[in-house]
# Entry
Amino acid sequence: MKKTTRRQALELGAALGTAMLAKAEEPRTLGKPLSGYGERSAFVKSARATRVSKTPEAGSSSTPLAETYGIITPSSLHYERHHAGVPAIDPAAHRLTIHGLVERPLVLTMDEIRRLPSVSRIHFLECGGNSGSEWAAKNGPTVQRSCGLASCSEWTGVPLRLLLEEVGLKPDASWLIAEGADACRMQRSVPIVKALDDALLAYGQNGEPLRPEQGFPLRLLTPGWEGNVQVKWLRRLHVTSQPYMTRDETSKYSDLMPDGKARIFTLTQEAKSVVTFPSGGQTLAGPGLYEITGLAWTGRGRIERVELTLDGGRTWEDARLDEPRFRLAFTRFRLPWRWDGKPAVIASRATDESGYVQPTREQLIAARGTNSGYHFNGIKFWRVADNGSVANVEA
Amino acid sequence: MWRLSAVLAAGLLAAQSPKYGVGRTPGSEEIRALGATVAPDGTGLPEGSGSAAEGRPLFASRCARCHGDKAEGDVGPALVGGKGTLATAKPIRTVGSFWSHATSVWNYVHRAMPFDQPGLLTHSQVYSAVAYILFLNGIVGEKDVLNARTLPKVRMPNRDGFVPDPRPDIRRTPR
# Structure
Protein backbone atom coordinates (compact mmCIF):
# COMPACT_ATOMS: atom_id res chain seq x y z
CA MET A 1 0.00 0.00 0.00
CA LYS A 2 2.71 2.38 1.05
CA LYS A 3 4.90 1.60 -1.97
CA THR A 4 2.04 2.07 -4.32
CA THR A 5 1.20 5.38 -2.75
CA ARG A 6 4.76 6.60 -3.09
CA ARG A 7 5.01 5.48 -6.67
CA GLN A 8 1.73 7.14 -7.45
CA ALA A 9 2.93 10.34 -5.83
CA LEU A 10 6.14 10.29 -7.83
CA GLU A 11 4.28 9.70 -11.02
CA LEU A 12 1.92 12.51 -10.21
CA GLY A 13 4.85 14.78 -9.34
CA ALA A 14 6.56 13.99 -12.61
CA ALA A 15 3.36 14.65 -14.43
CA LEU A 16 2.91 18.06 -12.82
CA GLY A 17 6.54 19.08 -13.26
CA THR A 18 9.61 19.15 -11.09
CA ALA A 19 9.09 22.70 -9.80
CA MET A 20 6.06 21.73 -7.76
CA LEU A 21 7.79 18.68 -6.34
CA ALA A 22 10.72 20.83 -5.19
CA LYS A 23 8.38 23.25 -3.47
CA ALA A 24 6.63 20.47 -1.54
CA GLU A 25 9.96 19.42 -0.09
CA GLU A 26 10.90 22.90 1.16
CA PRO A 27 11.20 22.66 4.98
CA ARG A 28 8.83 24.68 7.15
CA THR A 29 10.05 27.04 9.87
CA LEU A 30 9.24 26.26 13.46
CA GLY A 31 6.85 28.58 15.24
CA LYS A 32 7.64 30.60 18.34
CA PRO A 33 8.47 28.64 21.50
CA LEU A 34 6.34 28.47 24.63
CA SER A 35 6.07 31.75 26.52
CA GLY A 36 5.15 32.97 29.96
CA TYR A 37 2.65 35.56 28.85
CA GLY A 38 0.51 35.47 25.72
CA GLU A 39 0.48 38.19 23.10
CA ARG A 40 -2.07 38.74 20.36
CA SER A 41 -1.33 38.06 16.71
CA ALA A 42 0.96 40.58 15.06
CA PHE A 43 -1.78 40.97 12.45
CA VAL A 44 -4.33 42.28 14.98
CA LYS A 45 -4.02 46.01 15.47
CA SER A 46 -7.14 46.98 17.47
CA ALA A 47 -6.38 49.80 19.89
CA ARG A 48 -8.07 52.27 22.18
CA ALA A 49 -8.54 55.69 20.59
CA THR A 50 -6.91 58.62 22.33
CA ARG A 51 -6.74 62.31 21.58
CA VAL A 52 -3.68 64.54 21.58
CA SER A 53 -3.65 66.46 24.85
CA LYS A 54 -1.36 68.73 26.85
CA THR A 55 -2.52 66.80 29.93
CA PRO A 56 -2.58 63.13 28.84
CA GLU A 57 -2.99 62.05 32.47
CA ALA A 58 -6.51 63.48 32.43
CA GLY A 59 -8.88 62.40 29.71
CA SER A 60 -10.34 59.33 28.11
CA SER A 61 -9.59 56.61 25.58
CA SER A 62 -12.34 54.66 23.88
CA THR A 63 -12.94 50.99 23.13
CA PRO A 64 -13.00 49.83 19.48
CA LEU A 65 -16.43 48.26 19.93
CA ALA A 66 -16.64 47.29 16.24
CA GLU A 67 -13.53 45.13 16.64
CA THR A 68 -14.72 43.07 19.60
CA TYR A 69 -16.75 39.86 19.53
CA GLY A 70 -19.39 38.65 21.95
CA ILE A 71 -20.03 40.69 25.09
CA ILE A 72 -16.68 40.75 26.90
CA THR A 73 -14.31 43.61 26.19
CA PRO A 74 -10.65 42.53 26.33
CA SER A 75 -9.21 44.19 29.43
CA SER A 76 -6.46 45.71 27.30
CA LEU A 77 -9.12 47.52 25.26
CA HIS A 78 -11.40 48.57 28.14
CA TYR A 79 -12.09 52.29 27.88
CA GLU A 80 -10.16 54.61 30.18
CA ARG A 81 -11.12 57.77 32.01
CA HIS A 82 -8.49 59.14 34.32
CA HIS A 83 -8.30 62.45 36.18
CA ALA A 84 -4.70 62.37 37.41
CA GLY A 85 -3.01 59.48 35.65
CA VAL A 86 -2.82 55.76 36.46
CA PRO A 87 -1.12 55.18 39.82
CA ALA A 88 1.31 52.28 40.25
CA ILE A 89 0.11 50.64 43.46
CA ASP A 90 1.82 47.79 45.29
CA PRO A 91 -1.09 45.60 46.43
CA ALA A 92 0.87 44.52 49.51
CA ALA A 93 0.97 48.15 50.65
CA HIS A 94 -2.60 49.04 49.67
CA ARG A 95 -5.24 49.53 52.39
CA LEU A 96 -8.98 50.14 52.34
CA THR A 97 -10.28 52.15 55.31
CA ILE A 98 -13.99 52.18 56.16
CA HIS A 99 -14.92 54.82 58.73
CA GLY A 100 -17.47 57.48 59.62
CA LEU A 101 -20.98 56.56 60.76
CA VAL A 102 -20.09 52.95 61.58
CA GLU A 103 -19.93 50.96 64.79
CA ARG A 104 -16.52 49.45 64.05
CA PRO A 105 -14.17 51.28 61.63
CA LEU A 106 -11.95 48.90 59.66
CA VAL A 107 -8.67 48.87 57.83
CA LEU A 108 -8.31 46.00 55.40
CA THR A 109 -5.38 44.67 53.43
CA MET A 110 -5.89 43.18 49.98
CA ASP A 111 -5.14 39.73 51.38
CA GLU A 112 -7.90 40.19 53.95
CA ILE A 113 -10.37 41.39 51.32
CA ARG A 114 -9.60 38.35 49.16
CA ARG A 115 -10.37 36.02 52.10
CA LEU A 116 -13.99 37.21 52.20
CA PRO A 117 -16.84 35.48 50.33
CA SER A 118 -16.71 36.67 46.72
CA VAL A 119 -18.77 36.67 43.54
CA SER A 120 -18.07 37.03 39.81
CA ARG A 121 -20.51 39.00 37.68
CA ILE A 122 -20.61 40.30 34.14
CA HIS A 123 -21.39 44.03 34.03
CA PHE A 124 -20.98 46.85 31.56
CA LEU A 125 -19.27 50.06 32.53
CA GLU A 126 -20.14 53.25 30.67
CA CYS A 127 -18.79 56.75 31.17
CA GLY A 128 -21.52 59.29 31.93
CA GLY A 129 -19.98 61.34 29.14
CA ASN A 130 -20.12 58.58 26.51
CA SER A 131 -21.56 59.89 23.21
CA GLY A 132 -21.51 63.40 24.69
CA SER A 133 -20.57 64.91 21.32
CA GLU A 134 -23.83 63.57 19.86
CA TRP A 135 -25.76 66.28 21.73
CA ALA A 136 -24.27 68.80 19.29
CA ALA A 137 -24.52 66.77 16.08
CA LYS A 138 -24.99 63.24 14.80
CA ASN A 139 -21.46 63.19 13.50
CA GLY A 140 -19.51 60.66 15.55
CA PRO A 141 -17.54 59.12 12.67
CA THR A 142 -17.10 55.60 14.08
CA VAL A 143 -18.62 53.47 16.83
CA GLN A 144 -15.39 53.90 18.73
CA ARG A 145 -15.47 57.70 18.60
CA SER A 146 -19.20 58.09 19.12
CA CYS A 147 -19.91 55.33 21.60
CA GLY A 148 -16.64 53.76 22.80
CA LEU A 149 -16.61 54.94 26.42
CA ALA A 150 -18.44 51.72 27.24
CA SER A 151 -17.01 48.27 27.91
CA CYS A 152 -18.07 45.03 29.57
CA SER A 153 -16.11 42.69 31.83
CA GLU A 154 -16.52 39.83 34.22
CA TRP A 155 -15.73 41.38 37.59
CA THR A 156 -14.78 39.47 40.73
CA GLY A 157 -14.94 40.86 44.22
CA VAL A 158 -16.69 41.13 47.56
CA PRO A 159 -20.29 42.37 47.84
CA LEU A 160 -20.00 45.73 49.55
CA ARG A 161 -23.05 44.87 51.66
CA LEU A 162 -21.03 42.21 53.40
CA LEU A 163 -18.43 44.71 54.59
CA LEU A 164 -21.05 47.25 55.62
CA GLU A 165 -22.64 44.54 57.75
CA GLU A 166 -19.23 43.83 59.21
CA VAL A 167 -18.61 47.46 60.23
CA GLY A 168 -22.22 48.05 61.35
CA LEU A 169 -23.96 51.14 60.00
CA LYS A 170 -25.20 53.77 62.43
CA PRO A 171 -28.86 54.79 62.05
CA ASP A 172 -28.21 58.02 60.13
CA ALA A 173 -25.76 56.44 57.67
CA SER A 174 -27.13 57.21 54.20
CA TRP A 175 -24.18 57.96 51.91
CA LEU A 176 -20.68 56.64 51.27
CA ILE A 177 -17.93 58.96 50.17
CA ALA A 178 -15.67 56.79 48.01
CA GLU A 179 -12.09 57.94 47.50
CA GLY A 180 -9.40 56.75 45.13
CA ALA A 181 -5.65 56.52 45.65
CA ASP A 182 -4.88 58.35 42.41
CA ALA A 183 -2.94 61.61 42.65
CA CYS A 184 -6.13 63.71 42.76
CA ARG A 185 -7.77 61.50 45.42
CA MET A 186 -10.85 61.22 43.17
CA GLN A 187 -14.02 61.32 45.25
CA ARG A 188 -17.72 60.55 44.69
CA SER A 189 -20.77 60.27 46.96
CA VAL A 190 -22.69 56.99 46.70
CA PRO A 191 -26.20 56.47 48.11
CA ILE A 192 -25.98 53.70 50.65
CA VAL A 193 -29.00 51.91 49.17
CA LYS A 194 -26.86 51.05 46.14
CA ALA A 195 -24.00 49.96 48.38
CA LEU A 196 -26.38 47.59 50.17
CA ASP A 197 -27.91 46.35 46.92
CA ASP A 198 -25.48 45.08 44.26
CA ALA A 199 -22.28 47.11 44.68
CA LEU A 200 -18.99 45.21 44.63
CA LEU A 201 -15.47 45.85 45.79
CA ALA A 202 -13.83 44.37 42.72
CA TYR A 203 -10.28 43.05 42.49
CA GLY A 204 -10.67 40.74 39.49
CA GLN A 205 -11.45 41.48 35.85
CA ASN A 206 -11.84 38.89 33.10
CA GLY A 207 -10.00 36.18 34.98
CA GLU A 208 -7.02 38.23 36.14
CA PRO A 209 -6.39 41.00 38.67
CA LEU A 210 -7.83 44.39 37.64
CA ARG A 211 -5.75 46.19 35.05
CA PRO A 212 -4.08 49.32 36.50
CA GLU A 213 -6.23 51.45 34.19
CA GLN A 214 -9.34 49.93 35.77
CA GLY A 215 -8.26 50.49 39.35
CA PHE A 216 -5.71 47.87 40.42
CA PRO A 217 -5.76 46.58 43.07
CA LEU A 218 -9.33 47.50 44.12
CA ARG A 219 -12.24 49.44 42.70
CA LEU A 220 -15.81 50.21 43.55
CA LEU A 221 -18.38 48.77 41.16
CA THR A 222 -21.94 50.12 41.17
CA PRO A 223 -23.46 48.08 38.33
CA GLY A 224 -25.52 49.98 35.78
CA TRP A 225 -24.40 53.41 36.98
CA GLU A 226 -22.18 55.95 35.26
CA GLY A 227 -18.51 55.03 35.33
CA ASN A 228 -17.34 58.08 37.24
CA VAL A 229 -19.00 56.99 40.49
CA GLN A 230 -17.27 53.58 40.38
CA VAL A 231 -14.13 54.88 42.03
CA LYS A 232 -10.88 53.18 41.02
CA TRP A 233 -7.83 52.51 43.20
CA LEU A 234 -10.28 52.57 46.14
CA ARG A 235 -8.60 53.53 49.42
CA ARG A 236 -11.41 54.89 51.57
CA LEU A 237 -15.15 54.58 52.18
CA HIS A 238 -16.35 57.33 54.50
CA VAL A 239 -19.90 56.66 55.71
CA THR A 240 -21.87 59.89 56.13
CA SER A 241 -25.38 61.30 56.47
CA GLN A 242 -25.06 63.60 53.43
CA PRO A 243 -23.54 63.68 49.95
CA TYR A 244 -20.35 65.75 49.83
CA MET A 245 -21.27 67.57 46.60
CA THR A 246 -17.83 66.83 45.16
CA ARG A 247 -16.55 68.49 42.01
CA ASP A 248 -17.36 65.44 39.88
CA GLU A 249 -20.98 65.17 41.00
CA THR A 250 -21.89 68.87 40.79
CA SER A 251 -19.79 70.85 38.33
CA LYS A 252 -19.20 67.70 36.24
CA TYR A 253 -21.47 64.76 35.35
CA SER A 254 -24.54 66.90 36.08
CA ASP A 255 -27.02 67.52 33.28
CA LEU A 256 -27.66 71.19 32.52
CA MET A 257 -31.25 71.78 31.36
CA PRO A 258 -32.55 74.58 29.13
CA ASP A 259 -33.85 76.48 32.18
CA GLY A 260 -30.32 76.69 33.62
CA LYS A 261 -30.96 74.12 36.36
CA ALA A 262 -28.68 71.07 36.46
CA ARG A 263 -29.83 67.58 37.36
CA ILE A 264 -27.47 65.90 39.81
CA PHE A 265 -26.94 62.28 40.79
CA THR A 266 -28.22 61.13 37.40
CA LEU A 267 -26.48 57.86 38.09
CA THR A 268 -28.40 55.19 36.15
CA GLN A 269 -27.23 54.66 32.58
CA GLU A 270 -30.41 54.34 30.50
CA ALA A 271 -31.00 51.73 27.78
CA LYS A 272 -28.75 52.17 24.77
CA SER A 273 -27.64 50.19 21.75
CA VAL A 274 -25.48 50.69 18.71
CA VAL A 275 -24.86 48.77 15.50
CA THR A 276 -21.17 47.86 15.34
CA PHE A 277 -21.39 46.26 11.87
CA PRO A 278 -21.96 47.88 9.49
CA SER A 279 -20.81 51.09 11.13
CA GLY A 280 -18.93 54.30 10.35
CA GLY A 281 -15.53 53.87 8.72
CA GLN A 282 -16.21 50.33 7.46
CA THR A 283 -16.70 49.26 3.84
CA LEU A 284 -18.90 46.47 2.49
CA ALA A 285 -17.03 44.48 -0.18
CA GLY A 286 -20.12 44.23 -2.42
CA PRO A 287 -23.70 43.01 -2.50
CA GLY A 288 -24.43 39.75 -0.72
CA LEU A 289 -24.78 38.23 2.72
CA TYR A 290 -23.60 40.01 5.88
CA GLU A 291 -24.43 39.75 9.56
CA ILE A 292 -25.62 42.98 11.12
CA THR A 293 -24.49 42.98 14.74
CA GLY A 294 -24.11 45.28 17.70
CA LEU A 295 -24.36 45.76 21.45
CA ALA A 296 -27.15 46.83 23.79
CA TRP A 297 -27.14 47.56 27.52
CA THR A 298 -29.20 49.21 30.24
CA GLY A 299 -28.77 50.31 33.83
CA ARG A 300 -32.29 49.03 34.54
CA GLY A 301 -31.87 45.28 34.44
CA ARG A 302 -31.88 43.19 31.27
CA ILE A 303 -32.22 44.05 27.61
CA GLU A 304 -35.51 42.54 26.42
CA ARG A 305 -35.59 43.54 22.78
CA VAL A 306 -33.46 45.12 20.08
CA GLU A 307 -35.03 46.24 16.83
CA LEU A 308 -33.19 47.13 13.63
CA THR A 309 -34.13 49.49 10.85
CA LEU A 310 -32.59 49.39 7.38
CA ASP A 311 -34.59 52.31 6.02
CA GLY A 312 -33.72 55.14 8.37
CA GLY A 313 -36.38 54.35 10.96
CA ARG A 314 -39.50 53.82 8.80
CA THR A 315 -39.74 50.11 9.52
CA TRP A 316 -38.20 48.00 12.28
CA GLU A 317 -37.63 44.27 12.75
CA ASP A 318 -36.43 42.27 15.74
CA ALA A 319 -32.79 41.27 15.96
CA ARG A 320 -31.80 37.96 17.57
CA LEU A 321 -30.38 38.40 21.08
CA ASP A 322 -27.51 36.19 22.25
CA GLU A 323 -28.28 34.18 25.38
CA PRO A 324 -27.83 34.20 28.26
CA ARG A 325 -28.71 37.84 28.76
CA PHE A 326 -27.15 39.13 31.98
CA ARG A 327 -28.57 42.04 33.92
CA LEU A 328 -26.57 45.27 33.68
CA ALA A 329 -24.32 43.75 31.02
CA PHE A 330 -23.76 44.03 27.28
CA THR A 331 -26.21 42.00 25.20
CA ARG A 332 -25.05 41.05 21.71
CA PHE A 333 -27.63 41.26 18.91
CA ARG A 334 -27.43 39.88 15.38
CA LEU A 335 -29.43 39.73 12.16
CA PRO A 336 -28.44 38.18 8.80
CA TRP A 337 -28.75 40.70 5.99
CA ARG A 338 -28.53 40.33 2.23
CA TRP A 339 -27.33 43.70 0.95
CA ASP A 340 -28.72 44.53 -2.47
CA GLY A 341 -26.09 47.17 -3.17
CA LYS A 342 -28.50 50.07 -2.68
CA PRO A 343 -28.09 52.83 -0.08
CA ALA A 344 -29.40 51.95 3.38
CA VAL A 345 -29.69 53.79 6.70
CA ILE A 346 -29.21 51.37 9.59
CA ALA A 347 -29.85 51.77 13.31
CA SER A 348 -30.78 49.77 16.40
CA ARG A 349 -33.31 50.50 19.15
CA ALA A 350 -33.16 48.76 22.53
CA THR A 351 -35.97 48.07 25.02
CA ASP A 352 -35.16 46.98 28.57
CA GLU A 353 -37.09 44.99 31.13
CA SER A 354 -38.50 48.17 32.70
CA GLY A 355 -40.25 48.84 29.37
CA TYR A 356 -38.00 51.82 28.62
CA VAL A 357 -37.37 52.25 24.90
CA GLN A 358 -34.14 53.83 23.65
CA PRO A 359 -35.13 57.30 22.42
CA THR A 360 -34.11 59.19 19.30
CA ARG A 361 -31.67 62.08 19.56
CA GLU A 362 -34.58 64.38 18.72
CA GLN A 363 -36.62 63.05 21.66
CA LEU A 364 -33.68 63.57 24.02
CA ILE A 365 -33.15 67.14 22.83
CA ALA A 366 -36.88 67.89 23.13
CA ALA A 367 -36.71 66.80 26.77
CA ARG A 368 -33.28 68.15 27.77
CA GLY A 369 -32.00 70.65 25.21
CA THR A 370 -28.40 70.37 23.98
CA ASN A 371 -26.40 71.71 26.93
CA SER A 372 -26.48 68.72 29.23
CA GLY A 373 -23.40 67.11 27.70
CA TYR A 374 -23.77 63.84 29.58
CA HIS A 375 -25.93 60.70 29.54
CA PHE A 376 -26.69 60.60 25.80
CA ASN A 377 -28.35 57.32 24.83
CA GLY A 378 -30.01 58.24 21.54
CA ILE A 379 -30.41 55.97 18.52
CA LYS A 380 -27.32 56.08 16.28
CA PHE A 381 -27.85 55.89 12.50
CA TRP A 382 -25.27 54.70 9.97
CA ARG A 383 -25.58 55.35 6.23
CA VAL A 384 -24.43 52.63 3.80
CA ALA A 385 -23.66 54.17 0.39
CA ASP A 386 -24.11 52.30 -2.89
CA ASN A 387 -20.33 51.84 -3.08
CA GLY A 388 -20.40 50.02 0.26
CA SER A 389 -18.82 52.75 2.37
CA VAL A 390 -20.42 53.36 5.77
CA ALA A 391 -20.53 56.71 7.54
CA ASN A 392 -22.50 58.65 10.12
CA VAL A 393 -25.68 60.13 8.68
CA GLU A 394 -24.32 63.67 8.64
CA ALA A 395 -21.15 62.84 6.69
CA MET B 1 -35.68 59.13 47.92
CA TRP B 2 -32.20 57.74 48.59
CA ARG B 3 -32.32 58.86 52.20
CA LEU B 4 -35.58 57.27 53.42
CA SER B 5 -34.79 53.77 52.25
CA ALA B 6 -31.20 54.14 53.41
CA VAL B 7 -32.31 54.87 56.96
CA LEU B 8 -34.43 51.74 56.96
CA ALA B 9 -31.63 49.63 55.55
CA ALA B 10 -29.04 51.05 57.92
CA GLY B 11 -31.32 50.35 60.90
CA LEU B 12 -31.43 46.71 59.91
CA LEU B 13 -27.67 46.44 59.69
CA ALA B 14 -26.69 48.38 62.79
CA ALA B 15 -27.69 45.75 65.31
CA GLN B 16 -25.58 42.97 63.86
CA SER B 17 -22.21 41.98 65.25
CA PRO B 18 -19.09 41.33 63.15
CA LYS B 19 -19.27 38.03 61.35
CA TYR B 20 -15.92 37.62 59.66
CA GLY B 21 -13.52 39.33 62.03
CA VAL B 22 -11.23 40.48 59.22
CA GLY B 23 -9.14 43.64 59.31
CA ARG B 24 -8.22 45.80 62.27
CA THR B 25 -9.56 48.95 63.90
CA PRO B 26 -7.81 52.14 62.78
CA GLY B 27 -6.91 54.81 65.30
CA SER B 28 -8.37 58.31 64.91
CA GLU B 29 -4.92 59.64 64.00
CA GLU B 30 -4.62 57.02 61.28
CA ILE B 31 -7.96 58.09 59.82
CA ARG B 32 -6.93 61.76 59.99
CA ALA B 33 -3.74 60.90 58.13
CA LEU B 34 -5.83 59.81 55.14
CA GLY B 35 -6.41 63.51 54.52
CA ALA B 36 -9.17 66.05 54.94
CA THR B 37 -12.51 65.41 53.27
CA VAL B 38 -15.12 68.11 53.45
CA ALA B 39 -18.93 68.11 53.66
CA PRO B 40 -21.14 70.96 52.39
CA ASP B 41 -21.88 71.94 56.01
CA GLY B 42 -18.15 72.31 56.65
CA THR B 43 -17.69 69.02 58.51
CA GLY B 44 -14.10 67.94 58.03
CA LEU B 45 -12.63 71.36 57.26
CA PRO B 46 -9.24 71.56 59.00
CA GLU B 47 -7.46 74.35 60.86
CA GLY B 48 -5.87 77.12 58.88
CA SER B 49 -7.07 80.27 57.16
CA GLY B 50 -6.43 82.52 54.21
CA SER B 51 -7.65 85.54 52.27
CA ALA B 52 -7.73 86.63 48.64
CA ALA B 53 -4.90 89.05 49.34
CA GLU B 54 -2.76 86.11 50.40
CA GLY B 55 -4.06 84.01 47.55
CA ARG B 56 -3.09 86.45 44.80
CA PRO B 57 0.67 85.70 44.74
CA LEU B 58 0.00 82.02 45.35
CA PHE B 59 -2.33 81.90 42.35
CA ALA B 60 0.27 83.66 40.19
CA SER B 61 2.97 81.15 41.10
CA ARG B 62 0.97 77.90 41.29
CA CYS B 63 -2.28 78.24 39.32
CA ALA B 64 -1.95 80.86 36.57
CA ARG B 65 0.23 78.66 34.35
CA CYS B 66 -2.84 76.52 33.53
CA HIS B 67 -5.80 78.71 34.46
CA GLY B 68 -4.47 82.04 33.11
CA ASP B 69 -3.30 85.15 34.95
CA LYS B 70 -6.87 86.23 35.66
CA ALA B 71 -8.29 82.71 35.99
CA GLU B 72 -9.83 83.18 32.55
CA GLY B 73 -8.78 79.67 31.50
CA ASP B 74 -5.99 78.22 29.34
CA VAL B 75 -4.92 74.57 29.51
CA GLY B 76 -7.10 74.39 32.61
CA PRO B 77 -10.68 75.59 32.70
CA ALA B 78 -11.82 79.15 33.35
CA LEU B 79 -12.54 79.73 37.04
CA VAL B 80 -14.34 83.06 36.62
CA GLY B 81 -17.18 84.46 34.56
CA GLY B 82 -20.20 82.85 33.00
CA LYS B 83 -22.71 84.41 35.34
CA GLY B 84 -26.12 84.47 33.68
CA THR B 85 -25.13 82.07 30.88
CA LEU B 86 -26.48 78.77 32.24
CA ALA B 87 -29.86 79.11 30.52
CA THR B 88 -28.40 80.28 27.21
CA ALA B 89 -27.21 78.42 24.11
CA LYS B 90 -23.59 78.76 25.27
CA PRO B 91 -23.46 78.11 28.99
CA ILE B 92 -20.14 78.81 30.70
CA ARG B 93 -19.71 76.65 33.79
CA THR B 94 -17.20 78.12 36.24
CA VAL B 95 -16.69 78.20 40.00
CA GLY B 96 -18.52 81.53 39.99
CA SER B 97 -21.39 80.64 37.69
CA PHE B 98 -21.98 76.97 38.40
CA TRP B 99 -20.41 75.47 41.52
CA SER B 100 -22.90 74.94 44.32
CA HIS B 101 -20.74 75.05 47.46
CA ALA B 102 -17.56 76.86 48.47
CA THR B 103 -16.67 73.75 50.50
CA SER B 104 -16.58 71.75 47.25
CA VAL B 105 -14.00 74.18 45.86
CA TRP B 106 -11.83 73.79 48.97
CA ASN B 107 -12.20 70.00 48.91
CA TYR B 108 -11.24 69.81 45.23
CA VAL B 109 -8.30 72.23 45.34
CA HIS B 110 -7.03 70.46 48.45
CA ARG B 111 -7.07 67.00 46.87
CA ALA B 112 -6.47 67.62 43.17
CA MET B 113 -4.55 70.86 42.66
CA PRO B 114 -2.10 71.91 41.39
CA PHE B 115 -2.72 69.40 38.61
CA ASP B 116 0.90 68.24 38.34
CA GLN B 117 1.60 68.25 42.10
CA PRO B 118 -1.61 67.57 44.01
CA GLY B 119 -1.11 67.66 47.76
CA LEU B 120 1.51 70.40 47.51
CA LEU B 121 -0.52 73.16 49.18
CA THR B 122 -0.86 73.62 52.94
CA HIS B 123 -4.36 73.90 54.35
CA SER B 124 -3.94 77.66 54.76
CA GLN B 125 -2.74 77.96 51.17
CA VAL B 126 -5.86 76.12 50.04
CA TYR B 127 -8.02 78.61 51.99
CA SER B 128 -6.07 81.45 50.33
CA ALA B 129 -6.38 80.03 46.82
CA VAL B 130 -10.12 79.45 47.25
CA ALA B 131 -10.54 82.96 48.69
CA TYR B 132 -8.78 84.44 45.66
CA ILE B 133 -10.92 82.49 43.18
CA LEU B 134 -14.08 83.52 45.03
CA PHE B 135 -12.83 87.14 45.15
CA LEU B 136 -12.26 87.14 41.37
CA ASN B 137 -15.89 86.07 41.05
CA GLY B 138 -17.10 88.84 43.34
CA ILE B 139 -18.29 86.37 45.96
CA VAL B 140 -16.01 87.42 48.86
CA GLY B 141 -14.02 90.56 49.63
CA GLU B 142 -10.27 90.82 49.14
CA LYS B 143 -9.54 90.81 52.87
CA ASP B 144 -12.24 88.39 53.98
CA VAL B 145 -10.65 85.57 55.96
CA LEU B 146 -11.79 82.07 55.08
CA ASN B 147 -11.43 79.27 57.61
CA ALA B 148 -13.36 76.25 58.88
CA ARG B 149 -15.98 78.57 60.42
CA THR B 150 -16.45 81.14 57.63
CA LEU B 151 -16.05 79.05 54.46
CA PRO B 152 -19.29 77.01 54.86
CA LYS B 153 -21.21 80.29 55.28
CA VAL B 154 -20.16 81.56 51.86
CA ARG B 155 -23.22 81.39 49.64
CA MET B 156 -22.44 80.50 46.04
CA PRO B 157 -24.51 82.23 43.32
CA ASN B 158 -25.72 78.90 41.88
CA ARG B 159 -26.45 77.32 45.28
CA ASP B 160 -30.04 76.50 44.28
CA GLY B 161 -29.20 75.55 40.71
CA PHE B 162 -29.33 71.78 41.14
CA VAL B 163 -32.34 69.47 40.96
CA PRO B 164 -32.83 65.73 41.53
CA ASP B 165 -32.90 63.13 38.75
CA PRO B 166 -36.44 62.93 37.26
CA ARG B 167 -35.67 60.23 34.69
CA PRO B 168 -37.07 58.37 32.87
CA ASP B 169 -38.07 61.61 31.16
CA ILE B 170 -38.63 60.31 27.61
CA ARG B 171 -42.04 58.93 26.75
CA ARG B 172 -42.26 55.49 25.20
CA THR B 173 -41.82 55.48 21.45
CA PRO B 174 -45.19 54.81 19.78
CA ARG B 175 -45.32 51.43 18.08
Notes: The helical segments of chain B are 2-14, 28-32, 52-62, 64-67, 102-112, 123-136. Chain B touches chain A through 63 residues (CB under 8 Å).
